Amino acid sequence: MSTVPPHATGPRAASPRTDPSEADVIVVGAGLAGLVATAELVAAGKRVILLDQEPPASLGGQAWWSFGGLFLVDSPEQRRLGVHDSASLARQDWFGTAGFDREEDLWPRRWAEAYLDFAAGEKRAWLHSRGIRFFPVVGWAERGGTTALGPGNSVPRFHIVWGTGPAILAPFIERVREGVRSGLVTALHRRRVDELLTHDGVVVGVRGSILAPSDAPRGAPSSREVVGDFELRASAVIVTSGGIGGNPAHVRAQWPARLGTAPRELLSGVPAHVDGRMLGISEQAGARLINGDRMWHYPEGVGNWDPVWAAHGIRILPGPSSLWLDATGTRLPAPLFPGFDTLGSLEYILRTGYEHSWFVLTQKIIEKEFALSGSEQNPDLTGKNLALLAKRVTKGAPGPVEAFKKHGADFVVADTLPDLLAGMRRLSPDAPLDLAQVEREIRARDRELDNAFTKDAQITAIRQARRYRGDRLIRVASPHRLLDPHTGPLIAVKLHILTRKSLGGIETDLSARALGQDGTPVPGLYAAGEASGFGGGGMHGYRALEGTFLGGCLFSGRTAGRAAAAAL
């Protein structure tokens, strides 16, 4: 069962003891960063108005849908699995991945340093004190594969929260609800902020539209009918409204040339309300937006056969064994193996002139190596169901994975290679898929398994991965021939580009104060979460190490709430 109690779908409307006109702080956005900031303000005894344009059912925003992975450094979970991590190694990986190279990276660099200290320091204890626990096997995301100073995680650091995204939200939702009960919090849904109010250069409140009530379920599109307007004032405003991932036009407009031509077709990994509206509104009030061309999208998206929002896509979280082919049937070069380098793979695929690629694998691989991103795609972890979790180490893929294999439009399942190739051709009639090349790639890869040694870098990487106890136990299948009939059936998956995160945003100092064009704080304005590039206007630089988006919301939301409280 979910860790978020049924009564916590949303804080109730304003307490009769709370006069909205008397708030100390207005928080715009009731996602994870906004909830954390509000919880910190409540702890400091401050009066808060929490605004969100969506219905109460969508409280928690994107975090509710997340797999719940958090980046931790030198944790007990790592040490129990024989992983030797350190703050210095994490810093080497972070900066090698981020690639900071701009004048605008001054504050993002500082935020990266502060976040690394948090992840290697009090982060786990702080979360533990709020009842958050971790699955004992640490995942190894973004494995890199180049040199020690290149991008990627040198060791596993992806800690899955027991209960996934809803469990991360639960303690902060409860603290906000306590604030509602005590009269410190006024929670107003269906309030769309259209303007930040300023007076003599100081942000003093918000003005916006009251949207019609909506019974839309979580994540589904809600009405934009305006039924009124509102104006609220406070000593400070914290913007925690998220990024642009649900707005494909905005994504294409900011698409960087270094990643190739912006895709014509995009699956959406986040609901449509992740629209980026507050970024421009904050800029109009004096905030500086930086690094808008830095973004994090996945090349391993598949269409959701049971969608919640338009163009709803799900990311495959792959182990390292699937054969990755481009739209023509040519294998992606080393080290662009599944799960190694997200943006490197994305860039390569788009430079082929096509927007899709393929995984070719076996039933044995899908059973052990395929996970799907999202709380709803992992009912065992989300519901803390041990009996269901135990099935991950038995024969058969997890239920949601099998459902995609059966119902998903992007999956081809066949007993023979000719039938698999014919199915791939049916799914990509407009691409020059060279079936002879696909067969050559598969057979050549299989020949490399005749010996314990090989020149194939992916096979070497698979064998190396299985030296890690966590991978060997539940994540990486033993090396085998794709055409071994005992490991079948054969499976091909057509992969699409899936939007997810903005890595840039509102520039902030280490107190989460929004900075203006001249580099000085905009009085009264703070920003946190994805709206601030998870801190500073882009603490990830060009690339992420994974597990750092939820963590960035936690850290920046906490920082903003504490800083705003201290300034009052």
What's the overall average pLDDT, rounded?
95
Query: Shape, please?
Result: globular
Gyration radius, in Å:
23 Å
Sequence stretches where pLDDT stays below 50 over 5 or more residues? 1-19
Distance between the termini: 40 Å
Structural class: alpha+beta
Biggest beta sheet summary: 8 strands, mixed
Number of strands: 21
Tally of helical runs: 18
- Which percent range fits the helix content? 25-40%
Percentage of residues in DSSP E strands:
15-25%
Domain FAD-dependent oxidoreductase 2 FAD-binding: 24-550
Keywords: Flavoprotein, Oxidoreductase
Region (Disordered): 1-20
Protein name: FAD-binding dehydrogenase
Q: What would you note in describing this structure?
A:
The strands form 5 sheets. Strands 10, 12, 13, 14, 15, 16, 17 and 18 form an 8-stranded mixed sheet that branches. This protein has a 6-stranded mixed sheet with strand order 5-2-1-9-21-20. The chain has a 3-stranded antiparallel sheet with strand order 6-7-8. The protein has 18 helices and 21 strands. α3 (87-98) packs antiparallel against α4 (106-120). Mean pLDDT is 95; it is low at 1-19. The relative contact order is 0.19. It is of the alpha+beta class. It is globular, with a radius of gyration of 23 Å. It has helices at residues 32-43, 76-80, 87-98, 106-120, 123-128, 164-182, 248-253, 277-284, 342-351, 363-369, 379-382, 386-390, 399-407, 417-427, 435-447, 457-465, 469-474, 549-567, and strands at 25-28, 48-52, 69-71, 158-160, 185-189, 191-199, 202-211, 226-233, 236-239, 267-268, 289-290, 295-303, 313-317, 323-326, 357-362, 371-372, 411-414, 490-502, 505-506, 513-515, 521-527. α1 (32-43) links the parallel β1 and β2 (48-52). 31% of the residues lie in helices and 19% in strands.
